[in-house]
């Protein structure tokens, strides 16, 4: 099994476990939003909260890989990459290899995004389960900042991985 698919399966399983944990521990009234200082500024029902997180999870974990697969069909019209790279990777001899590699890379990125969702779901569930009405502001900042930093590194890695060889 390719590494991106394995990472996606592991993080998706963890996400489902976190949802089950949320169902088990959340009270009826749940924090739905936090302001910039980490204080709860909106509430929702447990059902609405869980429905939102199920939908978000499905959109990310199922939707992005499906959209990637659809975008990779055909001649690359729906793939946004430098033209030289597109000419190289969508040549008939390399197109299938590109599709497999890129699908795996995108599944890895979805796994990374699922980790962010897990952190946010976990924090929000913890606030609800403990009866707190705030979190230190930096907790969300660190989670989002780390995700953005790793995303930037991921993009650089993709640009290098899909750059055509100099002799091409």
From TrEMBL:
Residues 14-56 form the DUF1648 domain. InterPro entries: DUF1648. The keyword Transmembrane helix applies. Keywords: Membrane, Transmembrane, Transmembrane helix. The keyword Transmembrane applies. It comes from the Bacteria. The chain crosses the membrane at residues 51-72, 109-129, 135-156. This is DUF1648 domain-containing protein. It comes from Nocardioides oleivorans.
């Amino acid at each position: 099994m390719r590494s991106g698919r394995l990472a996606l399966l592991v993080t998706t399983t963890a996400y489902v476990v976190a949802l089950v944990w949320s169902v088990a521990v959340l009270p009826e009234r749940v924090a739905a939003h936090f302001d910039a200082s980490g204080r709860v500024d909106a509430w929702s029902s447990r059902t609405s909260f869980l429905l939102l997180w199920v939908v978000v999870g499905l959109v990310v974990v199922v939707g992005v890989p499906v959209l990637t697969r659809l975008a990779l069909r055909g001649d690359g019209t729906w793939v946004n990459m430098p033209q030289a790279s597109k000419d190289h990777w969508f040549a008939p001899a390399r197109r299938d290899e590109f599709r497999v590699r890129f699908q795996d890379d995108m599944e890895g990125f979805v796994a990374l995004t699922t980790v962010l969702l897990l952190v946010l779901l976990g924090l929000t569930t913890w606030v609800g389960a403990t009866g707190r009405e705030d979190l230190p502001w930096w907790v969300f900042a660190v989670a989002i900042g780390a995700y953005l930093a790793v995303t930037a590194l991921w993009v650089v890695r993709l640009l290098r991985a899909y750059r055509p060889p100099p002799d091409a």
